[in-house]
């Protein structure tokens, strides 16, 4: 009797362990499916819209707008996810949970958060677009943390170099220098260097006189490539790119990154991520497929770019895998 009870307990335990193991396995992603529902370690749709990524101590951190249903509507949330392979992401919580910091009123806006790690101050500095409901404030907000996943503490807001700033993008050059890309509605697309402590925007590199948002930059084999989207609200449009020998320009004409009729395959640029490994370098296009009426269900369109010698092209989306050690990416299925 006692022996069979022990055996029963033992098989229950084995069953529980196996269930756990399978649940764990089920969450493992071996590829990225552009436009699909991308789940985190909890099996929940990743909420990191209009986001940005940094690499810190061999871990990637992905920050973005947390737009899950059921959150306190008076607050705005910036989520943080951690990964070592860019395909599997662990939810680290909401790095920033912010109540209206500047009396902006109901429906105030916090969009496109980007985090920079400052090696000198050892602080993580988060920039975001801060606005009122009519997008008239056009400023950036800054919040700071000692840890990558927060909590971040709101510090201040300002207009970078005194200019209007709506969509922001981040660029960290190969030498570690940090830049903010911002959309200045009256003039165009600005790229500016952050101050030594990252608490300010200090020096303008370029004003590209083109009305573009969703700005993203990557440095690849001696050239800077800038991507931007037209100003069509949440609706997709054909994103464009230009190149320059340095951030100061001169910038080339803008060209299509994909067939214009595809409207960037329904997405809008938010960042380009350079993955350099032992064998090669892959540059990933990171875009948002916005669903304005059901923002929590907005998707991500990540795809390895064809890039080099002044040309950049976003291939038609297909599932792919990426190896962060070798830098190689591989198409795993045809859509
Ligand atoms: C397009 C921007 O890129 C988004 O970040 C957001 O500001 C929407 N416009 C709002 O319409």
Automatic annotation (TrEMBL):
The keyword Nucleotide-binding does not apply. Keywords: Glycosidase, Hydrolase, Signal. One of its GO terms (biological process) is carbohydrate metabolic process. Transmembrane segments: none annotated. It comes from the Bacteria. Pfam families: Glyco_hydro_43 (PF04616). GO terms for molecular function: hydrolase activity, hydrolyzing O-glycosyl compounds. Gene3D superfamilies: Glycosyl hydrolase domain, family 43 (2.115.10.20). Residues 1-26 form the signal peptide. InterPro entries: Glyco_hydro_43 (IPR006710), Glyco_hydro_beta-prop_sf (IPR023296). CDD domains: GH43_Pc3Gal43A-like. Belongs to the glycosyl hydrolase 43 family. This is Glycosyl hydrolase family 43.
């Amino acid at each position: 009797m006692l022996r069979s009870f022990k055996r029963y307990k033992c098989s229950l335990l084995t069953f529980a362990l196996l269930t756990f193991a399978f649940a764990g396995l089920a969450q493992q992603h071996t590829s990225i499916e552009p436009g699909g529902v991308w789940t985190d370690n909890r099996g929940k749709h990743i909420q990191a819209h209009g986001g940005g990524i940094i690499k810190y101590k061999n871990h990637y951190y992905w920050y973005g707008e947390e737009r899950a249903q059921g959150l306190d509507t008076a607050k705005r949330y910036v989520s943080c996810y951690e990964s070592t392979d860019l395909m599997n992401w662990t939810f680290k919580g909401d790095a920033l949970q912010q109540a209206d910091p500047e009396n902006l009123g109901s429906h105030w806006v916090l969009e496109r958060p980007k985090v920079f790690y400052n090696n000198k101050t050892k602080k993580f500095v988060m920039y975001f677009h801060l606005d009122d409901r009519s997008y008239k404030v056009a400023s950036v907000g800054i919040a700071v943390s000692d840890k990558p996943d927060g909590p971040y503490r709101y510090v201040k807001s300002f207009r970078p170099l005194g200019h209007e700033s709506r969509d922001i993008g981040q660029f960290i050059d190969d030498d570690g220098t940090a830049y903010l890309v911002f959309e200045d509605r009256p003039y165009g697309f600005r790229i500016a260097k952050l101050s030594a402590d990252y608490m300010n925007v200090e020096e303008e590199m370029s004003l590209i006189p083109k009305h573009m948002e969703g700005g993203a930059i990557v440095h690849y084999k001696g050239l800077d490539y800038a991507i931007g989207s037209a100003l069509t609200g949440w609706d997709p449009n054909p994103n464009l790119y230009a190149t320059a020998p340095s951030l100061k320009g001169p910038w080339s004409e803008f060209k299509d990154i994909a067939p214009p009729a595809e409207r960037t395959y329904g997405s809008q640029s938010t960042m380009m991520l350079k993955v350099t490994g032992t064998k090669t370098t892959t540059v990933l296009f990171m875009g948002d497929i916005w669903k304005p009426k059901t923002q929590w269900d907005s998707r991500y369109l990540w795809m390895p770019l064809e890039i080099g010698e002044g040309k950049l092209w976003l291939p038609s989306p297909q599932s792919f895998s990426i190896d962060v050690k070798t830098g190689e990416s591989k198409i795993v299925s045809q859509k």
